[in-house]
Write a structure and sequence with these properties.
Keywords: Oxidoreductase. It is a single chain. The strands form two sheets. Strands 3-2-1-4-6-7-9-10 form an eight-stranded mixed beta sheet, sandwiched between helices. It has ten helices and ten strands. The chain is of the alpha/beta class and 276 residues long. α6 (160-181) crosses α10. It is 45% helix and 15% strand. It has one domain (3-274): Rossmann fold (3-Layer(aba) Sandwich). The chain is globular, with a radius of gyration of 18 Å.
Length: 276
């Protein structure tokens, strides 16, 4: 039996993965904002004859807050001795810059800083697995120079496109850090090949919401179909870092200063976390 931790596990692809691994008889920790959605997930499994009681647990958290990510780490470390699979799939789309009660830019914390906290905080539990695997649902392929180290939280200038590219590149560099510390770790940066039908959780304009619903209905794939490649990768994880769009492997973006950039990113993120 594997121990699987899934952030964003109450909706969309995260929920589809939680259902899959619970059906397989694994132990699954779901991190999300809605206990009601978690209970609905368990109810849907029970209706199919799958008893997940004792194998499924829920941690309520808003991962756009540093303190919440740290609390999740503490709770998982207190209740588990090993993690075999960590899926980082939490999402909340914001078209505009939003500052949290902690004074940090919400999207930067949710889509990168929380992942850094979880990966570094849970590193010892992943190290105790025979085949530790991390699936980071951050679409690969951002340019090597996408990160502005002088404006990581987009305080000086913000655009949705720029913010998104910076988060994606940071998550690729995060893979350098964690696989250097644990060479046995499989770190997969993954994005769906095409649109996925989801509820598009976030603070977005009406036009974007409508467009997402219409496009999803016409051309989107079901979450259960979209996650099929992830299930395959986890069953036989590739060594080290890898990047995929759907089931197709894509080249990792190589920058001239990747190792130095990864270390600088770690230092800046540690300063953000400790200095909040």
């Amino acid at each position: 039996m594997k121990t699987v931790v899934i952030t964003g596990g109450t909706d969309g692809m995260g929920a589809a993965l939680a259902r899959h691994y619970l059906r397989e008889g694994n132990q699954v920790v779901v991190v999300g904002r809605s206990r009601a959605k978690f209970e609905a997930l368990l109810a849907s499994l029970a209706a199919d004859g799958v008893a997940a009681t004792g194998r499924a647990s829920f941690l309520a958290a808003d991962l756009s807050l540093v303190a919440e990510s740290e609390r999740v780490v503490e709770q998982i470390r207190a209740s588990h001795e090993r993690i075999d699979v960590l899926v980082l799939a939490a999402s909340f789309i914001r078209q505009k810059r939003h500052e949290t009660a902690e004074g940090h830019e919400a999207s930067w914390v949710l889509f990168f800083v929380s992942k850094y906290i979880l990966l570094t905080g849970l590193a010892s539990l992943l190290a105790d697995s025979d085949r530790p695997t991390v699936v980071n649902t951050s679409v690969p392929g951002a340019k090597a120079g996408a990160i502005d180290f002088d404006d990581l939280e987009s305080a000086q200038r913000f655009s949705f496109v720029r913010s998104n590219a910076q988060q994606r590149r940071a998550n690729e560099l995060l893979g350098i850090l964690v696989t250097s510390d644990n060479p046995a770790l499989a770190y997969i940066t993954w994005g769906p090949r095409r649109l996925v039908r989801t509820s598009l959780a976030g603070d977005v304009g009406r036009a974007m919401k409508i467009a997402s619903v219409l496009l999803g209905a016409v051309a989107g794939q079901r979450p259960d179909d979209a996650i099929a490649p992830i299930i395959t990768f986890v069953a036989d994880p590739p060594a080290g870092r890898a990047a995929y769009r759907g089931a197709t492997q894509v080249a990792l973006v190589q920058g001239p200063h990747d190792t130095d950039d990864a270390r600088r990113l770690a230092a800046e993120t540690t300063a953000l976390v400790t200095g909040r």
